[in-house]
Amino acid sequence: MNMDTAGAPGPLTARDYKSDLKPVWCPGCGDFSVLSAITMALADIARPREEVAVISGIGCSSRVPAYTNCYGFHGVHGRALPLAAGLKLSRPDLLVIAAGGDGDGYSIGGNHFLHACRRNVDLTYIVMDNQVYGMTKGQPSPTTSPEWDSALVPGGTGVRPFHPLVIGLAAGANFVARTFSGDPKGTARTIAEAIRHPGFSLIEILSPCVTFRPEERDWANQVHPAAVEETQDRAQAARRVLTDDGFNTGVLYRGDRPAYQPNFAPKDADLSEFEREFLP
């Protein structure tokens, strides 16, 4: 944690939720705007910084906890969601955000992603999807199109990409949305909605990697608001996502499943029962 608890009285601003560390992302990276959107959303929610925790795994986007002025944990590759879920279940009073990228979340973290959706713990998962492994120099990620040609994979992988929003819907995510990093204010509004919605919220943020995928700069000309309203019907939401062009933005699904929160009330235990079982 790098939290400055001193400050002027009054409402917290987005700047109050940013740390003094300077991000090391490449100039033009979409993650700069995502960081701004996260801090704007936190200012809108207006929770004290000591009641907010940002958890991440490994990757360019997983640097977010270092750049926020609240509690944070930079975990290991693919493990952001079990860390975030464990924290939320043990401290339900905290606002918990998990942040990462398409490689961290859907490759080594894929199994954790499925079960986080299924469990429906009350947390928000922000995935900055640039369809490439940026920090490790440009390998195809789970969401990379099969024909993307690169020096590392000439001719492309030929492998069908992972479809996180459909998988999230099928696995049980309670709130599903897609935004674009080039619209930080709209992204901030969606993040705030996701935080307020009970259960597991998934936000896919299209965040261009201008270093290894410079063609993604054109995403700014391709994204557009979804032509249909959000739905509470998972099957309908899945059909819409499967048939869209991948650039529809907005809230796609808002479910009504109750968030998972087990009762951890302390119980009296009679240790003599255990002693009789294990002692001679």
Characterize the structure shown:
- The chain has 280 residues and is α/β, with parallel strands linked by helices.
- It has a single domain, classed as Thiamin diphosphate (ThDP)-binding fold, Pyr/PP domains (Rossmann fold, 3-Layer(aba) Sandwich), CATH 3.40.50.970.
- The chain is 31% helix and 15% strand.
- The protein has an eight-stranded mixed sheet with strand order 2-1-3-4-6-5-8-7, sandwiched between helices.
- Helix 4 packs across helix 5 (164-171) and helix 5 (164-171) packs antiparallel against helix 8 (234-243).
- The termini are far apart.
- The relative contact order is 0.14.
- The mean pLDDT is 92.
Which stretches are low in confidence, meaning pLDDT under 50 for 5 or more residues running? none
The assigned CATH architecture is: 3-Layer(aba) Sandwich
Q: β content, as a range? A: 15-25%
> Might you state the CATH topology name?
Rossmann fold
Q: Give the structural class.
A: alpha/beta
Distance between the termini: 48 Å
Helix residue percentage: 25-40%
Biggest sheet details: 8 strands, mixed
Quaternary organization: single chain
Count of extended strands: 8
Mean pLDDT: 92
CATH C-level: Alpha Beta
| Number of discrete domains | 1
- Strand line-up in the sheet with most strands: 2-1-3-4-6-5-8-7
The CATH superfamily is Thiamin diphosphate (ThDP)-binding fold, Pyr/PP domains
- 3D shape: globular
Secondary-structure element pattern, one letter each: HEEHEHHEHEHEHEHEH
H/I helix tally: 9
Instruction: Compute the CA-based radius of gyration.
Output: 20 Å
